[in-house]
Specification:
The protein is of the alpha/beta class. It is 30% helix and 21% strand. It contains 20 helices and 30 strands. Bound molecules: adenosine-5'-triphosphate and magnesium ion (MG). Belongs to the ATP-dependent AMP-binding enzyme family.
Length: 673
């Protein structure tokens, strides 16, 4: 295609590290291809055999997938493992303990402060905590199918509360602890959760987060919307610590209970509620990058297989590994690669409460050195932020235990990929760029690190059971080297089943664009070697004089410039070209901005992509508007790029982490002069 040669170097190849291949579950491309083929052509055997590693109280009668993606043929639906009954918490905990892993470390809890009381929990200890929680919820009257909202910091109570819900068949709805009272109230009301589990507060770096007082406010707001929260369970995270007086909250008699009192007298064993394969496990809202957040609904058995299999094969999980995923359990990454995927594999992992920059910018690396982490999983936004402070904070720590680095959340620029590989990975680690969504529950595209040579910036190939296609604007499947909309032809096991309480919106949001396909919303290229490259959201593709340019490509070119730490690119209406290219640019720590940079940056993009992609406008951005999960909110940037930016309505910005960056951008505006 015409827009295909404007490329960051797509031929650059990083070979599988041989020491990794030697032990890997999948050791060659041939092996990967054979397994992939089996997963698609004979799911009955491939997924059926894998599923039988788990405990089924009632065996499934059919593997699946049973599904309809074509609205013309009736409602969209999908199911896996029909007829089966199982339980996620049982398979994460009891099953591993029966296998002899009871004394194995499950979770190393690392607190915000370096000198706080970090603690480690074995599988047996996690099970006991989960059972106490589960018994307490049952005593509260919570039964199968009831929703429980969880608004907790990253302490061990968070995954434990999730697993407790799973154990009794309740549906958890975790709300990230950075959300406002408004956002929390909306999610409580939407889920109709009578029970909310929160904490008095938590320190993030040196700032207290008032979780309980925000919960109090959210309960009031919910009540105004006609919904009454009956029980608020409060974990005393700061109670009795030197920070206790930093948090202020009310106490509603009859409604509020301290977690210790709630679970304290409960027995440490609890029977299991066996649930059907398609019974709901949890609901979780998307991050809101593109609009009003969607309450994604996941079910039991398929999600179990998807998270288990990707943890095992993409992260090439081995018994001696120590896994560290830096995501919060408030996001899908924390659900799938903290609470469920690692525990299903019997893994040892680090659960980190704090932030990467506290007390200093090397906290992640200190943690890796402390626990001898082998597998580290983070987001490009974190990598770029840490790149700003240079190499020394990384290299002053002993990172020799690392063997595998993961990335998720956004396209990773080749520049950041290579820094991650060279500086963090010491040039010897594999990198798994994992592309997936809240909706898909587990990885869609990712290299199997023992088998696949990587190209920096490419998420490589589809995972087992994932059948992708790239469509043109008319919905026709493209072959070979191509670029278009990324869709799924069939549901992988861990696919979402609906939007909670709104199946209509579910069909419209994902199945109305292309008949018979699930539309990811993302643009994608396939190169001549069959590697997949995410080019950004489809609505982020800019059409300049008939050339379709992915915003991710222009951003990568800008970030490759020495002074640039981060860039965000959007389109704006242009009289002659149709759309013009508008670039927001953040400089490295300590760099002064100067207008003389503008022509240099434009030249950089011309050289790396082509003259037709030359930026029209460069806007210096000391900070970018990001969602609380760290993604750039381009829809806000598109509005600020307009000539009448001062009078634009910026839409739903409730998931913005720091609203004040918007004012700074307006004050810096190149159109203001
Ligand atoms: P919303 O759907 O509410 O706009 P969101 O899409 O940001 O929010 P998530 O489900 O957390 O919510 O993010 C999934 C999206 O993140 C993907 O659709 C894709 O755009 C992007 N993404 C995730 N991982 C990668 C990756 N490795 N490479 C490229 N893009 C990625
Ligand atoms: Mg999305």
């Amino acid at each position: 295609m015409s827009d295909f040669n404007q490329e960051v170097d797509m031929s650059e190849m990083f070979k599988v590290p041989e020491q990794l291949r030697a032990k890997a579950h999948v050791k060659s491309m041939e092996e990967y291809r054979a397994m992939y083929k089996a997963s698609i052509e004979d799911p009955e055997t491939f997924w059926g055999d894998m599923a039988r590693e788990f405990h089924w109280e009632t065996p499934f009668t059919k593997v699946g997938p049973t599904f309809n993606f074509d609205r013309a043929k009736g409602p969209v639906h999908m199911s896996w493992f029909d007829g089966g009954k199982t339980n996620l918490a049982y398979n994460c905990l009891d099953r591993n303990i029966e296998k002899g892993l009871g004394d194995r470390m499950a979770i190393h809890y690392e607190c915000n402060d370096m000198d706080d009381q970090h603690a480690s929990f074995t599988y047996t200890q996690v099970l006991e905590l989960v059972c106490k929680f589960a018994n307490a919820l049952k005593a509260e009257g919570v039964t199968k199918g009831d929703r429980v909202s969880i608004y907790l910091p990253m302490t061990v109570e968070l995954p434990a509360a999730m697993l407790a819900c799973a154990r009794i068949g309740a549906v958890h709805s975790v709300v990230f602890g950075g959300f406002s009272a408004d956002a929390l109230a909306g999610r409580i009301v939407d889920a109709q959760s009578k029970v909310v589990i929160t904490a008095d507060g938590v320190m993030r770096a040196t700032k207290p987060v008032q979780l309980k007082s925000i919960t109090d406010k959210a309960c009031e707001l919910a009540e105004l919307q006609g919904f009454k929260v009956e029980r608020v369970v409060c974990v005393g995270r700061l109670k009795g610590t030197p920070y206790a007086d930093q948090v202020k909250h009310d106490w509603v008699e009859g409604r509020d209970v301290w977690c210790n009192d709630f679970i304290g007298s409960q027995p440490a064993t609890c029977g299991v509620e066996w649930v059907a394969s398609e019974d709901p496990l949890f609901m979780l809202y998307t991050s809101g990058s593109t609009g009003r957040p969607k309450g994604v609904l996941h079910t039991t058995a398929g999600y179990m297989l998807g998270t288990f299999a990707t943890m095992k094969y993409v992260f090439d999980y081995q018994m001696e590994d120590t896994f560290f995923c830096t995501a919060d359990c408030g996001w899908i990454t924390g659900h799938s690669y903290i609470t469920y995927g690692p525990m299903l594999n019997g893994a040892t992992q680090v659960l980190f409460e704090g932030v990467p920059t506290h007390p200093e910018v090397d906290r992640f690396w200190k943690i890796c050195a402390k626990y001898k982490v082998t597998t580290f999983y983070t987001a490009p936004t974190a990598i770029r932020a840490l790149m700003k402070s240079g190499e020394e904070p990384v290299t002053r720590n002993d990172l020799s235990s690392l063997r595998l680095l993961g990335s998720v959340g956004e396209p990773i620029n080749p520049e950041a990929w290579k820094w991650y590989h060279r500086v963090v990975g010491g040039g010897r680690c594999a990198i798994a760029d994992t592309y997936w969504q809240t909706e898909t529950g587990s990885h869609l595209l990712a290299p199997l690190v023992g088998a696949v040579d990587c190209k920096p910036g490419s998420a490589c190939f589809p995972f087992f059971g994932v059948e992708v296609a790239i469509l043109d604007d008319k919905g026709v499947e493209l072959e070979g080297e191509c670029s278009g909309s990324l869709v799924l032809r069939r549901p992988p096991p861990s696919m979402m089943r609906s939007l909670y309480g709104d199946h209509q919106r579910f069909e419209e949001a994902y199945f109305s664009q292309f008949n018979g396909y699930y539309f990811t919303g993302d643009g994608c290229k396939r190169d001549k070697d069959g590697y997949y490259w995410l080019t950004g959201r489809m609505d982020d593709v800019i059409n300049v004089s008939g050339h379709r340019i992915g915003t991710a490509e222009v951003e990568s070119a800008l970030v490759a410039f020495p002074n640039v730490a981060e860039a965000a690119v959007v389109g704006f209406p242009h009289d002659i070209k149709g759309e013009g290219i508008y670039c927001y640019v953040t400089l490295n720590e300590g760099e002064e901005y100067d207008d003389a940079l503008k022509p240099k940056l434009k030249q950089q993009v011309r050289e790396m992509i082509g003259a037709f992609a030359t930026p029209d406008e460069i806007h210096w951005a000391p900070g970018l508007p990001k969602t609380r999960s760290g993604k750039i909110m381009r829809r806000v940037l598109r509005k600020i790029a307009l000539p009448d930016y001062l009078t634009q309505d910026l839409g739903d910005t409730s998931t913005l982490a720091d609203p004040s960056v918007v004012d700074v951008l307006k004050a810096n505006h190149p159109r203001a002069a």
